[in-house]
Protein 1
Amino acid sequence: MEKQREENGRSPRKRIVNILVHVFLAVLAVIWVMPIFWIVLTSFRAEPGAYTSTFLPKAYTLNNYVKLLTDRNVLNFPRMFKNTLIIAICSCCISTSFVLSVSYSLSRMRFKFRKPYMNIAMILGLFPGFMTMIAQYFILKAMGLTEGSSIRFGLIIVYSACTGLGFQISKGFFDTIPRAIDEAAIIDGATQWQIFTKITMPLSKPIVIYTIMTSFIAPWVDFIFAKVLCRANADQFTVAIGLWNMLQKEYIYQWYTCFAAGAVLISLPIAILFLYLQRFYVEGMSGAVKG
Amino acid sequence: MIEDRITVKNALINGDLLTKLSAVVMGAGIAGHKQIIKGAVVLLLEIAFWIFMISQGFHNLSMLPSLGTEVQGKVWNEAKQIYEYAAGDNSQQILLFGVITCFVVAGFIGLWVLQLLHSYKLQKEMKKGEAIPNLRQDVKNLLDGNLHITLMTLPCIGILVFNIVPLVYMITMAFTTYSKEDEHLVLFDWDGVHQFMRVLNMNGNIGRQFWHVLAWTIVWAIFATFLNYILGMILAMIINRKDTRFKGFWRFCFVLSIAVPQFVSLMIMNIMLQPSGAVNVLLKNLGLISESIPFWTNAMLARVTIIVINLWVGIPYTMLQVTGILQNIPEDLYEAAKMDGAGPATIFFKITLPYMLFVTTPYLIASFVGNINNFNIIYLLSGGGPTYVGDTAGQTDLLVTWLYKLTIDQQYYNLGAVIGIMTFVILTIITLTTYRNSSSYKNEEAFM
């Protein structure tokens, strides 16, 4: 009887522990959600300015969203949105094909350059990203991709050219697909290309979706590469630079609540995508670790 | 049968006339051994290479040792009544084109070796009477046995052009005087290891800052990595407990914070923790403090704040990553420990932690590297500040953010490059010693 009660978690000691655990989780959850809650509130705040004397807004409005989406004179958010969308679509196509090609080759094919490639990728990953970025800027400049609308190409290249180095998670996933399937297909006369496109890809939907989404999201959330490459070319700004600019001294009073609105607008789709993707991330992760 | 091996030496000694000829007229050997189109392509590449070298390449290489000497000049044009600028040498471009030319030459040498070996191989196959694959078979093979060549060529070119070349270029910059100091932005010269000495010299201004920044970088990386790792794991375990209700809801709350783009949440944090930001306002309204807490202007407080905020950012990530792995830990280990009367703390430190460390070492290393190179969190939160007068590095600057300040703000390119190289050296030492000893690296192929 005693044992039964304990297993049901009804013994007084267990009960106290349980209550404490749930209170603890609740406190943590509040801490974690509060900044997000606060920014959503701010995006509906009627008073302008970054700093107010009260934690909660005094009045609510939708004007911040209206201003953000219609004001084209000071900080042209719709144009930034368009720029980022174009860059994101292009670089997403390139990066996805690069990442999947490299990971498939490394996971399934055996060639002399395989181990060296993985070692080189690891070594390159140890250099601070900035070091390459500054030199990339000089190279793009020599190619004439740092002026006017060609900045867009520059950014696409910067976001997608080196993605062949980020193969780890999808390779980990491919590694978990049994080789026996490949071997059976080879006996049936399939070429490696057919195995890649007709067998491995359909079996790897989670990781394909994950790769597409992460490479699509990258241009939306990177601001430092974009900032270095765009410099003062305001018509080429991406969303991230725009949001960053809204917090600079000259804009912050007028634009702070709009920043909050922009942050909510950008975060919402990304958050939904991420919540949807997290299980693929976890699968890829534990797949990669099993080795 | 040593002479049978396909090497450059054997090809040059034992090759037939065509193979030997292809040492000069590249592709001759391949074309002569029935692969005409392939040979023609190789020959075209050789011609293109020599055209490039004669029109530009040799000039680029010859400029490398001096990096240019012509100063940009102002010449009075009598006819137009204006000063005309006579373009001088631009060392930065000379260096860049020089580096690129070196890569082209290296690529050419590689091609030369490959075509020579290929020709020798074809020659031997013909001698044995084997069928030489024609172009169609070669192309077909590119989609089958040689699929990796098809798939990896473009990504490799991308990495070469936009990662390796820039890196080498940046590394060479560390050995020059390319800097705003002493006005060396247009014309600069080789400088040997002078900048390295400056950075390592503890008595100089730059050296003192370097050791300071390095110490904080390592302290930061250790705290950020291990606190996140252990606390994230504990959080995952608390949520995974049998008796915890609403598991999905708790996970959702924490994952929500990483679903928001990091730069957005970091900028929000920065604003919230300003002297008149939301946190100070809230604390004042509650009557807990009367003066604002100087989160970003007090060096010690700024450091602690950054580490704490990084917990906010990182714990959910760890939670996500380890949840699945935690469930893989064999249940009987726990049962046995409980039988022996081990408490929760003992079980965690004697069973859970060692198991997790064993399985996730590569990820721990990756996150350590990521933290040392964690630009966003410092740049967006404290901006590296507070900064003392006369310093280029702030009290919370990491090596990467200092690198950014040195190059983008100050234009001390050579110093920036040295800092980058130092970061790399430190990371290499840490990583290679741990990574190569980890089980996951050694047993990479184990379960195939």
Protein 2
Amino acid sequence: MRLLITIVLQGIFVLELFAQTLKDTISISTVDVVASVRITERGVNKTVIDSLILAERLTSSVSDILAKHSLIFIRSYGQGLLATASFRGTAASHTQVLWNGINVNSPMLGVADLSILPVFFADDISLYYGSSSLVKSGGALGGLINIENKPDWNNKLKVSLVQGLGSFSNNQTYAFIAFGNSRFQSKTRLFRESSINDFEFKNMESGSFEYMKQKNADFQKYGLMQEFYSRIGYNNLFSAKVWCTITNRNLPTLTTNESIQAESKEYQNDNSVNIVVDYKRITKTGSILITGGGTSTNMLYFSGYEDGNKKAYVRDSSLNKTAQYFGKVNYLVNIAENIGFQTGIDFNYSSISNINTIKMIEDTSVSYCANRTEWSGFARLSLQISNRWNCFLIAKQVISDSILIPVMPSFTVEYNALKAKRLVFRTNVARNYHLPSLNDLYYPSGNPLLKPEKGYSADFNVQFNHNYSFLKIDTKLSFFASIIDNWIVWKPSEKINTWTAENIKTVFSRGFEYYIGLSGNIARWSYHAKANYSYTRASNKDTSSINNSKDNSYGKQLIYTPFHVYNLLINIEHKKYYCNYSINYTGNRYASSDNNVNSLKPRYLLNDVEIGKNIAVNNFNFDVQLRINNIFDIQYQPFFGRAMPGRNYGLLVRLNFSK
Amino acid sequence: MRISRYIPVIIIVITLSISCEKYNVDVVDYNKVGQGLFIVNEGNYGNSNASLSYYEPNSLLINDDVFTKTNGFPLGDQAQSMTIIDSIGFILVTNSSKIMVINTKTFKHIATIRGIDSPRYMLTISNTKAYVSNMYSTSITIINPQTYSVIGFIKVGKPTEQMVKWNKYVFVANWSLGNTIQRINSETDSLIDSLIVSYQPNSLAVDKYNKLWVASDCGWANNKPIPSLTLINATNFSIEKEYKFPNNRISPSHLCINGTKDTIFFLTGGWTNTGEGSNGVYKMSVLDDQLPDIYLIPQGNKLFYGLGVDPVTSNLYISDALDYVQSGWIYRFRANGIPIDSFKTDIIPGYFCFQP
């Protein structure tokens, strides 16, 4: 790999000499994204992942991007493996993931696997913190990740081919073609990624303390996304989008596992299809958006081994199928210059089936099917009281299987201290409910009496941005607090040998987040610097803990919730060369609810660097990028016993053609 | 500007100045004498946080996480049980597919026995032979406890759990989704026959009258059958009596027998502190004709998870797993149910191993 790097570096400089003879054209754009000012988006605590990051990290997964460039805590079980997101000390199920308006959280598990989606498939990623998520969806007690795809109406033809190679036989191929005119656009994206993923790590959990190679961690991922956009005039917009994925992953054992059974296998195969179709009509005073869609997933899990005759012995195997159908109508109207009103109705039908084969004995399959129908309606009123004061009211009502969930209200006040909205104070209080997943309700014997998790939240933030002649600054400080009651926990039930979900915990989460983004030019250098920091204190307030004198979990930090998280990205560009340096810190976490020091998981700080070069020739744009992850070869584990790679390298070559 | 030249240097300096925590492998030296008690803390499945505690009843001293502190690395994932032969301890770590061998005085790691799919319990047959039951395999693994190696297998066709030796026979409970007790000839290492009992027999004991006691929990289905204790004549391997519990919400587990082999103890409820008010630790004479009407020690708001009986004093050791993700507690009682004291251990204390 080092030889390859040398060749690439030399290649970049040769290309530079070559490029000097060619006309200078555009490089990858470093678009600065500012908060949208649409009425539906005002009064919202939201972060948009910088388009610079999306453009230069397009071969990464969304989970990887969020882990390194946001304050969301990504619970990753290893490279290429399941990765879920948590906001502000809440659970992964309290994070909703929307793809073009439809919820892609599994109705079975309540979480979304963000390792499956490559950044290449996203045009826009936004994060809605806390109750700000209510503008998009209910139930996101922690927050919401909104992933969108958009048309470029000016595009005639654009083709992009990307090839990535990396350590551990990582091979990524991406293709993109978009064509059309001002009335019709088509975008097709394809990707394939495979990796043997046999990285070397120092195993501190076995007696040998030796470096060893990760085993049974290879994966293959395939994806297709097709988008069609059409508009009649400028007022009628149609779109249809399909996103399909196939992900086959072998699951590595824990670092403490010393099985030598060569035939032992554990793997998970996921297939999914997501479809969304929408129609938007823009009127003089507002718009109406009608959306329909569906998702379908199949997940096969297998743990077992084969004997000498290739006969499979199952330890544990399950086949899970889920289907969701969505329908939405959203109407927005500006009643007056200073009054906006938005209302909508959502329909969601979810069904799941599960077949679980336990052990190697015949006739021991357990299966269950379940479904749920949800209707919800919401209204949002936006009032501009004066030039400086705005307020926003949301009321959302959900009916789940004929059960009326209490109203979810949200109230936000916004004060613009300076002209041009450069300094904004914003505060919000809200109540939100999160419905149990279908597994929570029905698996294995279920607990149909589960109540929705109830969250009360308050948020205060100050946002400032300004363009000075030499510097652009964008900064935000947020304080948050939330109490989540009826928090669902899985625990052994009175029916011996099984676990069920119960409304047990009360959690008080509070803290603050700080973001600062600086950009500008120094001489012929341009730079961007972005830093995030969060402090989260998420403590157990379950009163039953107090009643038991031996229970030391009351008031303690939730397990695997870091107190401190920060990250920094520095981007420097000079003469079509660019360098991105990022650091990402995850603080200490406890693995026991009483915060026993023996359970403390060490903090870690990772450093990554990318250097690249853009070369443009006529309509072609050529980009070469070299990447070094985990520069200082830190041995770290997000979860105990889950090995992660040390220093590793990646090479990316991208060819763009546009007309 | 000249400052631009220094940007890479600034970045490197900043980065290098930020320290990273290293894995700590400092170790502690122990040298324990006397008759202490090992407590195997199961830990959370998939978290590799199983641990070993050592309790000294004479000094009331508890030594936590002695394996990691001594050896600088953890025990593994989901430790199930421990067996001691002389001064060598064998800790069976189910989800790490291994048996960790330690010196019971110094807690130093001696060897790791690999090649066992999912070890649950170990039964000593002789100085050179021991059986190991498996949860996810249809064979019993035979190991040599002197060479710390796998020397054979006994095909039994079912997952295996607790085992007990009586004369040349070994009785094996087929707990996980099973309903049989198997009988193995330990001289020939061969399965002889099996007997159908109530669903999911989880624990066994042989009393002074050569009777085999079996506790069956009957699984977890809503409409599961009524759990029971089964009394088997060890001599002719036939069922003599079945003690049915009043309803299917009371499930017995952790059946233990005292040192004089005339009294059995078992847990009901286990796993949970919800529901049945009649859950707790039960005591029963091996001559009793019926199940006791009421518990000896009520579970109350605790979460009884493990039970052990000191073979010398007959004192009871009961573990409370609390919420399963924090340090559990051990309650000590006299055999008549009078409380002695309590002490804290680690996550999910599940098995008590008394030094022979």
Protein 3
Amino acid sequence: MSAGGSRGGFLLDRLVTATALLLGVTLISFTLTVHFGPDPTWEQLGRNPTPEQIEQVRQALGQDRGFLPRYADFLLRLARLDLGHALASGEPVVDLLARAIPVSLLLLAPGFLIGIVLALALAMVAAWRPRGFVDRLCTIVSATGMSLSLVIIVIALQAVFAVWLDWFPARGWRVHDLASYLRHVTVPSLGLIVAGLGYNLRFFRSVFRNVLHDPPVRTARAYGFGDGRIAIRYVLRAAAPPILTRILVAVPLIVISGSLIIEKHFGIPGIGMVTWNAMMSGDQPVMMAVVSLSSVLFVLALSVTDLLTGLLDPKVRGA
Amino acid sequence: MTAPVTLRRRLAGLDRLPVALMAVFLAAAAGVWCGLWGTDWSTISGTLREPPSPEHWLGTNRLGQDILERLLAGTATAFEVGLLVAVASVALGAALGGLAGFHAGRRIDTLLTWVIGTIDAIPFYLFVAAIAFAMRGWPGAMQLAMILSFWTLTARLVRTESMRLREREFIAAARASGSTNRRILLRHILPNLAPLLLVQASLAFVAAVKAEVVLSFLGIGLQDSISWGIMIAEASQEILAGHFTNFIAASLALFVLVLSINSLSDGLQERLDPRVRRTPTERLA
Amino acid sequence: MFFKGLWIPIARPAVLALVSIAVIGCGRGETDAETAQKVYRHAIDGAPASLDPAHADNVYAATLVKNLFDTLYRYKYLSRPYELVPNLAEDFPEVSEDGRVYRIRLREGARFADDPAFPGGLGRAVTAADVVYSLKRHFMSETRSRGGWLWRDRIVGLESDATIRSADQSVAGLAAIDERTVRIELTEPYPQFTHTLAMALSAVVPREAVEYYGREFGVHPVGSGPFVLNRFDEAMAVLEANPGFDRGPVDLAAEGFDPQRHAGYDLEPIDGKPYPLVDRIEVHFISEPSARWTSFASDGGVDVVMVPPELAERVLESRSPLRFKPAIRERYRTLHGLEAGFVYHGFNMANPEIGHSADPVRDRKNRALRCAMRDAFDWSARNEAFYHGLGRVFPGAIPPVLAAYDPPFDDDSVTHRPRQARQRLQSAGWTADTLPPMIYGLEASIQQRQMFEQFRAWMQEAGFPPGHFQPRSFAGFGEYSRAIGQRELDFFLLGWTLSYPDAQYSLQLFYGPNAAPGANSVNYDNPEFDRLFERASTLPAGPERTALYRRLNRMIIEDCVIIGSLSRTRLYLWRPDVRMFPDREMVGGYFLRFVDVVEDRP
């Protein structure tokens, strides 16, 4: 099979999977949020509504229409990338996402990246010398980290760093330059690092351990190549596919829901907070946009993972 | 067919400390189930915010309820939620994963793979909140949501595993000797999967207990009940005023329980297959 | 080797993306605004969804709407009890002899802020036609008005089934006589009408902007108020002084300044200065009480805090009389006062098992049940646990903040009497087996869950079997109101905030025709009450009306329709370099235009 053919086949295959996935996600979410979900009508009413007004609002929101026409309508709009308007404010959902997503990315990127790099470095050292000091430390850190709930971490960090020590703002997001950004992002990032470190450390260490058992690495170590060279040239490369998969698949979850608790607790207007408010008030256009977006991201992440795995693994490459 | 025996032998050598801790937690929960303690978690038995005393070992909360009673009752809740979600999600995952793996490449496999992918692509909180809404005040809404969301992880593993087993000789032999599919599944495949399922169940247990805390914190947790998550959520409003007992009691209990189960499950995995270690599900870290 | 080839293609776009995100995220038009001299950081306990005046029926939206838009009337900054004063109107309305025809003249020089919605982007003068349009649009279905009920059936041409299809459709009772005069004809006297013209719902909007922005008007407000909107999201709104706003200087004496009552607030320096006095106001939306405190207590946080009851202990020296600690008084300025509203528990009177029954025997029996629950309810414990004992418990639905408040004629209805509760149940023939089970509705918050546990404990003490009250929690207020509106709940907790200082506004909660889904959530149906309420509604203020109001209040107490009520005490602290009197009750956010900060503030 020629390289071009296989690539085309891969893309087509991906496209079919992606479409099927998107349909599945929207169907389930639409059924749950729109069909069984909270009736947004009552959120839109004044303090003394009459039955006629309620009927009017229901009609305006399309609540009186059947499931299928509404779902079809939603799909058609989605295909045209028309996400509609938020029910409560009337703001176009696209604008809403465009202002909320950058906030979430800015908020989460440092904690996510530092957490990964820190875990990679520690895991490498730990795997390099099993039962050494760092390895033991990692065991304790990962066991502790995995047993802590993000909720507890966030409450405790805020109390310590923002209230008692008063080093950082306790909440909010008034970011206008680098200094203010760093002030606001530090405590949430710490929370993310602490919450994720345990899981990452453990995963990376076991991946590295497996790789270090591989014959080429053993040979290289036996030949006395420099540690740094082996670590970077062989181990990191050989371990790249599972690590990249893990990171990439985590991205959509982080972007959409990982930030919910942090944003809610620290009062940061990112996508997590937007989603949460929409959920509580039954703002269907916003919810459906978030769900659709996250499934698209998810599919993208999986596809990129496949591509990278293909690029990295000579066996898959040659095939 | 030797799996159960091996499993028993493998379980025998687990670490003492986590086992002991688990026993303490289980005893606490059992006491609640037998009505020995923890039944008065809702009763207002003292005045507001009493410090620890012989009557109230951990003091009372803002209503005058005994914090220890609530902690104990919360332990029982943690086990109820954890066990139910673990058993149900693993059973569901095993059944559907096994079905898919056994019929790999056929239409039912495609369908199930699609369902699994779909559920994994929906943001967890959105999914749970949506189910909670759809179930409108039904007391089991939260557990159902967790089960419907957690089973996919087990299903993926079981699917892969049973695809591998399907090709092994003893299955072929069984098939040659005229066993039905159902018989093969029950007598040959399932026992071989038991260790994997046990590990998955322990991970699901931990995930459920931790998820309960998050969901209660968000206000979409259990309905009319007491749990550690509810205690932590209550505490989050009073920490600044200098009332820590609720927070420390519940977080510590949660921490120790999760730590014990994690280390038990680690020990288990090491004995099962030292090379393959699974990382606990962290969708809810 | 391979390694280089692998990482560069991944790393470069990733770095680029991060940098570009950082640039976009950081350059959000705030840098220039930050150089503004006078910034005041306000905090409110919830976020508004829409800033369209037609949706502003809650205090959060009203706080912003009253500053971005203008209403015909407003309340004086400092006078208590509340006093109306012309705002966008030039003077008080001329009312005809029979109280049905209002003529209102607009002030000269009021202009809408510049906005792309206007030709050339330049704002224009506010005219009488704008006032007419702003009221009329409440009756157009695309507005999805939350305030139409205030004027429906009240203004001629807006009778119950009337809808307005186009903004050009004329309404008999609403007319712009000339550029600056509005004539409004009412179906019957409505003494509270002028008050409704001070509510955020009645704020004046330009038709061009409403049509230009369509559904997005709620996030692109264009008005003639003292401020314009700079930023608005889930966490905060940023308002900037509207350069085109000119109402002349502040006249402190006319606003009700009393050197004694307002001593120590350092308000004198604002007298004679044009307002608004600050360049920029940040309104932070912080719903968690402890987070509000945290932000206030940390450097660079908000300038004002409504102290959560959990933390009252930290700031108060004594509760009665209420006095702040000396250390707090040294560091901050302080204010305390009762809210213009109340919380209460209501029964669903439409449920024949517990409420009105056609069978007079059962009706009496049900009343005994409700009254027994009321006896078993311990308001002082509720007050102690959730309001730090600072709430004011009062019988019925006329809160102490109103002139018609009945000084405790009889505290019986808010006194904890578990023994009397048992006796009542017994003598009415209720036993554990016959007591009808009830669905207790609550919003899924920690506090409401705790309130339920407290309530259940009291009821068990009075003899209700455990499990008798089935809690049903709702994740959002919309769902909760739906359940109440559709009469699914038997017993529920509600709050009611007054929009104008008149008992009519709280007694309408029991008026038969307002039954659910309307404001009469308890579905009280008493023809005698309705008749007297209708009579009181057209009466001008005076002893006759007050007597009627009190009689109505006693009727709902007599019938055990609600368990209540309690008005919360608000405790405010703010930084001493802010000059203000941040009372948001009734006045909503009107005080923001009079807020000043000292010049050399860090």
Protein 4
Amino acid sequence: MIQVVLPKNLQILAGVGRVVELEVSGEATQRSVLDALEASHPALLGTLRDAQTKKRRSMIRFFACEEDLSDESLDAPLPNEVATGKEPLLIIGAIAGG
Amino acid sequence: MSKVRLLVGTRKGAFVLSSDASRKSWKVDGPHFAGWEIYHLKGSPVNPDRIYASQSSGWFGQVLQRTDDGGKTWNAVGNQFVYDGEPGTHKWYDGSPHPWEFKRVWHLEPSLNDPDMVYAGVEDAALFASSDGGTSWSELAGLRTHKTASEWAPGAGGMCLHTMVIDPSQPDRMYVAISSAGTFRTDDAGQSWRPINNGLKSNYIPDPDAYVGHCVHRIAMHPSRPSTLFMQKHWDVMRTDDGGENWREISGNLPTDFGFVIDINANEPDTVYVVPITSDSHHFVPDGKLRVYRSRTGGDDWEALTKGLPQENCYVNVLRDAMTVDTLDPSGIYFGTSGGQVYASADGGDSWNAIVRDLPAVLSVEVQTLK
């Protein structure tokens, strides 16, 4: 199972805890994980990426294994630690404001 | 016995305030959607327990919420607002063409006779409609594709469709206001629109009496007299008696005629309320005094209402969707401030009390009068 950590506002919106566990078919990529996340929690549709273009919202970041994966290709494989559930994919609201 | 329910949208969540008809003791419920900007909530006149809420965030975008039990439980409904066809461009702040981009829903207007029908006024300015309770949305593109649309430009708060009024005597007639394009009317249920800005004069645009380009802040209609509309423009308080064909200024003796809100007493169609704001560069009330002004003559002659409102060291603003009136007798008047206070008057404005004092900045207040 892949583990995804959501920011607090999206935990409330989706009615879930901090960590969401997902079964992802095929290779674990940003696209496949977000597809699975939105399919299991439709309230999140459009909150992380544009529903049509699938482009990441500008103030959303994807971190894992102490790396910023935000600008990686949607179809690039996620780190093996994420794919095997040892490390979570962290979805972060970018720091903004004072 | 009647009850009233206030729906308060703030910068950091929604609150539901309820009272019996005495409007003296209030129960405060919330925050709902904590941490999110709630630009507007509004209930269906047909089924008051069905309430729609616009929930948005600079991080997470737009979410639409709906409750069918008066706010006890909420569910996210559709949030896909896609402009019809190739959106084209409008004017940007520097005059250059700028692509139309959806940012948020400013205002929700449920149908007067169908609980599944609801309209959404959005930024960048356009009107969307849903006929399935907010699950799916389609644009009424006749407005955004009006021949003047490429000349529309944003106001300081963005280019937003923030006001919608439906004529109860002929529901195919609807009015919208856009900052800063002006006021528009449809007579065919939103298929086609035309600007109705004759009589508006705005000295902050190159042609003060232009066909479009006016920064209209809010319009209000009394349901018993739908051809009469009152307007709070960027500067100037205005009135029309012919469905917007012609407007005349009714600012009269107001201390300043800049402001955002305007509303009408539910039992007295000529009793109008505004909250004057110092200026467009000073978005707070004049002289440190929070005063509602009431005209009992449909404009021109205004009296300050101060009893129960702070009269020193007060520097709050009252935004365009943050005043509302109930339909009890005497009519209750409510407004929320940028300082997080929600004030209520149960006597038509003669006296006021703060229901709550320390909410996040208030963006909108709507009241439901419940049987």
